Amino acid sequence: MHFHPMYDPAYTAPMQAELQSIGVKPLNTIPEVEQALAQKGTMLLVVNSVCGCGAGCARPAVKLAMQHKPLPMHAVTVFAGVDREATHRARAAIPEFPPSSPSIFLLKDGKCVFALQRSDIEGRDPAALAQKLTAAFDEYCK
Q: Which domains are seen in the chain, by residue range?
């Protein structure tokens, strides 16, 4: 199955760069997602989005949380509506959660141990979201 981007990658590049600048690696293809998911240890998985709650809540929260110690061993992102195959594959790894974007997951050895869905993110204070993330880092990333 091949999906065409809903959004122009040139338009979304700054939104991608916002996470990349703090060490969150973009995954643009199914093989990149599969390679990332096969890694042992802890992984932050951000399903990025062009929506206002991506810009106003999710990305700022991730930026704040990534200043914390301990951190997940790996931090990756897929972009809903841009890298659609990669996003579809990443979501398939966490079938217990319906697709939503933005969303933020913490995986440990490929299993989801913490999740923030769009309903948890939308309209929330980035600092409060970051606090939830760093609490999960404290619990699972030591």
A: 9-140 (3.40.30.10)
